[in-house]
Amino acid sequence: MRLDKYLKISRIIKRRPIAKKIADQGRIMINDKVAKSSSSVVTGDKVTIKFGNKTLVVKVKQLLDSTKKEDAEQMYEILEEKYEQDFREI
C-alpha cells in the first residue's frame, strides 16, 4: 500500500494530500530511510513522522483498504511519541 494512502486510512494524518506533501518534503521515514508518498508500506514497517515539534514513531500492524474511525487505531502501534521544545531566547 502507498504511504500516503496508509497514513490517511489509519487516520494518522487526516487528509491524503497533506500526507503526500509531508512525505515529499522528506519528513517521513520507513525503517530509517527517507520515504516518498509513493513508497510501499508493509506489515511490520517502522514509520517515523516529523510534525513541526512532534515526532511520532509507529509500527504498521495491518493494511486495510478502508476502515471505520474506531478501527483505525488497530492498523498501527505507537512505539514512541516525543515533543521537541523550542529554547530560543527572547
From TrEMBL:
Keywords of the record, alphabetical order, are: Protein biosynthesis, RNA-binding, rRNA-binding, Stress response, tRNA-binding
Q: Which SUPFAM superfamilies match?
A: Alpha-L RNA-binding motif
Which residue range or ranges hold the RNA-binding S4 domain? 1-64
| Ranges in coiled-coil conformation | none
Can you cite a GO biological process for this protein? rescue of stalled ribosome
A single MF term (Gene Ontology): rRNA binding
Q: Which domain of life does this protein belong to?
A: Bacteria
Q: Which residues cross the membrane?
A: none
Purpose? Key component of the ribosome quality control system (RQC), a ribosome-associated complex that mediates the extraction of incompletely synthesized nascent chains from stalled ribosomes and their subsequent degradation. RqcH recruits Ala-charged tRNA, and with RqcP directs the elongation of stalled nascent chains on 50S ribosomal subunits, leading to non-templated C-terminal alanine extensions (Ala tail). The Ala tail promotes nascent chain degradation. RqcP is associated with the translocation-like movement of the peptidyl-tRNA from the A-site into the P-site.
Instruction: Give the quaternary structure.
Output: Associates with stalled 50S ribosomal subunits. Binds to RqcH, 23S rRNA and the P-site tRNA. Does not require RqcH for association with 50S subunits.
The UniProt similarity line reads: Belongs to the RqcP family.
- What is the protein named? RQC P-site tRNA stabilizing factor
State the organism of origin: Limosilactobacillus gastricus DSM 16045
